[in-house]
Design a protein that fits this description.
Blueprint (H helix, E strand, L loop, with lengths): L2 H4 L14 H7 L11 H13 L3 H6 L1 E8 L5 E3 L1 H11 L12 E10 L2 E9 L7 E10 L2 E7 L14
Parallel strand pairs: 1-6
Antiparallel strand pairs: 1-2, 3-4, 4-5, 5-6
Helix pairs in contact: 2-5
Length: 162
């Protein structure tokens, strides 16, 4: 769902896992950044890339000094660490990733350059909807900061999900 289509802003989710060898190697070669015109456009692109498990598009959106604040006091700092984080997310569930989850906004509001989103996570492998909230701070057309309640351990997957 795109903002321009629905009036809703998409949401991002984050997953903090150890870097997988193939994607960790790929993340050493970061793709060029791709600034966008508005906060809405940045978050739209982010959700679309996340929902399509597109590592390159995800990493193109981040500033070099981007920071994530995650549950339990976890902090991801810098574009390289963000790349490693998403390298694991875009893997299939059978390989420890979460590719196939769909992040859908339920309520959004923009304050300056910060998009605040209440969202639900669904998908074919998800046993029950998982709700949470995220805030996305943009600067110069890139994602500069995020605060997320997303906790991959709380997502209930169907038995035998792949």
């Amino acid at each position: 769902m795109r903002i321009s289509d629905s009036g809703f802003c998409p949401v991002i989710a984050v997953l903090l896992l150890a870097a997988g060898s193939a994607f960790a190697q790929a993340s050493k070669q970061l793709p060029p950044q791709k600034p966008l015109a508005t906060t809405n456009a940045v978050v739209d692109e982010h959700l679309d890339a996340l929902n399509h498990c597109d590592w390159k598009r995800l990493v193109q959106q981040y500033s070099d000094d981007a920071e994530f604040m995650l549950p339990a006091g976890q902090l991801v700092k810098g574009r390289k660490e963000v790349a490693d984080l998403f390298a694991n997310f875009v893997k299939p569930i059978s390989q420890g990733g979460l590719c196939g989850l769909k992040f859908i906004p339920e309520h959004t509001f923009l304050v300056g350059t910060t998009m605040n989103v209440q969202r639900v996570v669904t998908g074919d492998a998800v046993a029950e909807p998982y709700r949470g909230a995220d805030a996305y701070e943009t600067r110069a057309g890139l994602m500069a900061g995020q605060v997320s309640t997303f906790d991959a351990a709380q997502v209930k997957l169907k038995k035998g999900a792949k």
